[in-house]
Specification:
alpha/beta; about 40% helix; UDP-N-acetylmuramoyl-L-alanine:D-glutamate ligase
Length: about 425
């Protein structure tokens, strides 16, 4: 099996649909010798900020000298981004070898595992064989019935910011969604919670009390913002000054959640020097989250895809680019609340260059352009990403700004095409 064949097998359309539940993953991993039982985890669930939180934790743990595994989704440009060790993607040959073994086990199952279940099994097998000290494990969807929740009690269960999402699977209220995500909290672990909506924190408190789990909240009153620029930001947390490489004021809240997680890990005996915390936060990288690709004109890529993300982006742009209108390189999915997203972004826009994300759920560039013109906003549709990029840079001029936004299904492709210009 080649790396390309491995990816084709995993992404087979016949089993790519979402199917929550742990039975198939448990059976598949049992057939592989239960590799997850020989690993330790930080398990991270939430609606927004999961990926950034995972990236910060991974960077800090690596700086502390641990051999780390990092499991995230979706990927931005290449499939191997989803499974990393010590900051490096799984090599294609290793992906192929692990997938071959997983396929042999999956083909024996009466109920074939889904795409996400297959990737989870590949990751667990690879992390175990590479002898990771600790794995930062991002939940795919929800928590309690997500494939990643086959693990025993993690070292720390982390709940990031929660909003209304995937309501057809997770419930139609914040309380129901929080209860589903709090399903990763198990007796024997510590828990950390983003200090978000009161109804969310109440659910997490109750779950921790019922299961006898020590809980830490990221108290944002302890965060003092110092400065921010396109080079990063500085803030004080609990009397200590930190530099954070990631852009966006909201990342300080994610960082506070990370710092509470570090405190919980220390309580469990993990040796994480303060030097490693500073180094990890100052050097962390996370693709397509307010990622600067170039400065003249400024080209920034952000994979945000819901109103919460649009609000955070708008807030950041007002702070970083005051009084400057930007060219948005935009594509959205039709099942997202794009009218609210655009309501937040339109006041900042010079114009919109519209593209179609690579998804069967995409709103076409033509439909998006029509909608924007109905709002009296300048917008142009392009069939090819490369043409859209050139048009956006031409519209921005040397001293302008181009912001790619709206869907992870689009920004990865934009990132790839940008490298070819």
């Amino acid at each position: 099996m080649t790396p390309q064949e491995a990816v084709r097998y995993i992404e087979n359309y016949g089993w790519s649909t979402t199917r929550l539940g742990l039975g198939r993953t448990r059976e598949l991993l049992r057939r592989l010798g239960d590799p997850q039982k020989r690993l330790k985890f930080v398990h991270v669930a939430g609606s927004n900020g999961k990926g950034s939180t995972c990236a910060m934790l991974d960077a800090i743990l690596r700086a502390a000298g641990y051999r780390t595994g990092l499991y995230t989704s979706p990927y931005i440009q290449e499939f191997c981004e989803r499974i990393r060790i010590d900051g490096g993607n799984i090599p294609g040959e290793a992906l192929a070898e692990a997938t071959e073994r997983v396929r042999a086990a999956a083909e024996l199952m009466e109920d074939h595992p889904s795409q996400f279940e297959l990737v989870t099994a590949v990751a667990m097998l690879y992390f175990m064989e590479q002898r990771c000290d600790i794995v930062v494990l991002e939940v795919g969807m929800g928590g309690e019935q997500d494939s990643t929740n086959v693990i025993d009690a993690p070292e720390v269960a982390v709940i990031t910011n929660i909003g209304l999402e995937h309501t057809e699977y997770l419930g139609d209220t914040l309380e129901k969604i929080a209860a589903t995500k709090a399903g990763i909290i198990k007796p024997g672990c510590h828990a950390v919670c983003y200090d978000g909506a009161p109804e969310v924190t109440a659910v997490v408190r109750n779950v921790c009390a019922e299961r006898g789990v020590p809980l830490r909240f990221a108290d944002y009153s302890k965060v003092k913002h110092l400065s921010e620029s396109l080079d990063g930001q500085r803030f004080i947390w609990d009397g200590e000054t930190y530099r954070l490489a990631l852009l966006g004021r909201y990342q300080q809240h994610n960082a506070a959640t990370v710092l509470e997680t570090v405190a919980a890990l220390r309580e469990r005996g993990w040796d994480i020097p303060e030097r490693a915390v500073h180094e990890g936060l100052a050097n962390v990288k996370w693709l397509a989250r307010m990622e600067i690709m170039q400065r003249k004109p400024l080209f920034l890529i952000d994979g945000g895809h819901n109103p919460q993300c649009a609000e955070a982006l708008a807030d950041s742009l007002r702070r970083l680019l005051p009084e400057k209108k930007v060219v948005f390189l935009l594509g959205v999915l039709r099942d997202k609340d794009y009218p609210r997203m655009l309501e937040l972004l339109c006041p900042l826009a010079q114009e919109f260059i519209c593209l179609t994300p690579l998804s069967d759920r995409a709103l076409s560039a033509e439909e998006l352009t029509k909608y924007l013109k109905e709002q009296n906003v300048k917008a142009t549709a392009f069939a090819e990403i490369s043409d859209g990029l050139r048009a956006a840079f031409a519209a921005a001029g040397k001293n302008g700004a181009v912001i790619a936004f709206g869907s992870l299904y689009l920004v990865g492709a934009i990132r790839g095409e940008y490298g070819k210009l």
